[in-house]
Write a structure and sequence with these properties.
Length: 283
């Protein structure tokens, strides 16, 4: 009788449907892809930006320290691996920039595809690749701004500013990448859920990754530090896609969207399919 009551509560809270959609989306697989592309894209980009920054605010290393809530020896171990050097700009070649652009566009395309799967929208045409470049630039500006606020604000004002800017970014990003196929009001719950998840991930990181980073750095050196950072980025990817998925489910529970067919068949999509594309959005 107890298992049945737990199962009823599971369904009543919508967790069963959230789990089913996450499995259908291959959420963990996408999160791991997000982490890999983020590491090979964001780390070099922010290191180069930090090397060219006249204020010298630390770039990728400082963003990781802030995002993972690190301090002391754990922050020093991370800065030792990801901190910028003065020779970064002079040693950056055309081939390096080309590879960086390729990985950056692949990263943006992967995020766009995740949003398309969640919202059941049509795939963007090839000539909309410029949106990937704009999204990547805005992402860099968002991360850089988060780092800069450390020297301007502290305490509750900085927390409120960081959360507010984050909500705006994750509200704008799917709307822009999906070519405005989903109305703004349907994307707000996902943006709020994403930021709530990132705040929770920061707390988890403080409790788990801070001591783990120190022990891994001692046992495995820079490789151990990179593995911890990669694990944290997997969590970020899980929150980004999971928050958007939860936002869509909230819209369905509120009656703004039709539920997608069960099981969905993306290989045989037709205009009459419910829950697929903009036609599933109710006014």
């Amino acid at each position: 009788m107890v298992p049945m009551s737990r199962l009823a509560a599971w369904h009543r809270l919508g967790l069963a449907e959230l789990h089913r959609r996450g499995t259908e989306l291959e959420l963990m697989h996408r999160a791991m892809g997000f982490a890999t592309l983020a590491l090979v894209t964001l780390a070099p980009l922010l290191i180069v930006v930090a090397a060219a920054d006249p204020f010298g605010h630390g770039g990728f290393a400082l963003w990781l320290v802030d995002g993972m809530a690190l301090n002391g020896r754990s922050a020093d171990a991370l800065a030792h691996v990801f901190g910028p050097t003065r020779k970064v700009i002079s040693t950056t070649s055309a081939l390096s920039l080309a590879l960086l652009a390729f990985f950056g566009m692949s990263f943006a395309s992967s995020v766009q595809n995740g949003y398309e799967r969640i919202w059941r929208t049509a795939a963007a045409p090839w000539h909309h690749l410029w949106r990937h470049a704009v999204w990547l630039v805005m992402l860099m500006a968002y991360l850089y701004a988060q780092v800069q606020t450390r020297t301007v604000l502290e305490g509750p004002p900085r927390i409120l500013l960081s959360v507010g800017v984050g909500v705006l970014f994750f509200w704008w990003a799917p709307h822009f990448l999906l070519n405005r196929q989903v109305p703004w009001r349907y994307l707000l719950p996902g943006a709020l859920a994403t930021m709530a998840g990132l705040v929770g991930l920061r707390g988890f990181s403080y409790l788990v990754f801070t001591p783990l980073l120190v022990t891994n750095a001692i046992s495995y050196g820079p490789v151990g530090t990179v593995l911890v950072v990669e694990s944290w980025l997997v969590g970020v990817g899980f929150v980004v896609y999971g928050g958007a998925l939860l936002g869509r489910l909230i819209c369905e529970w509120l009656g703004h969207l039709d539920e997608p067919p069960d099981p969905p068949d993306r290989t045989a999509r037709t205009p009459t399919d419910r829950g697929q594309g903009p036609s599933a959005l109710r006014s």
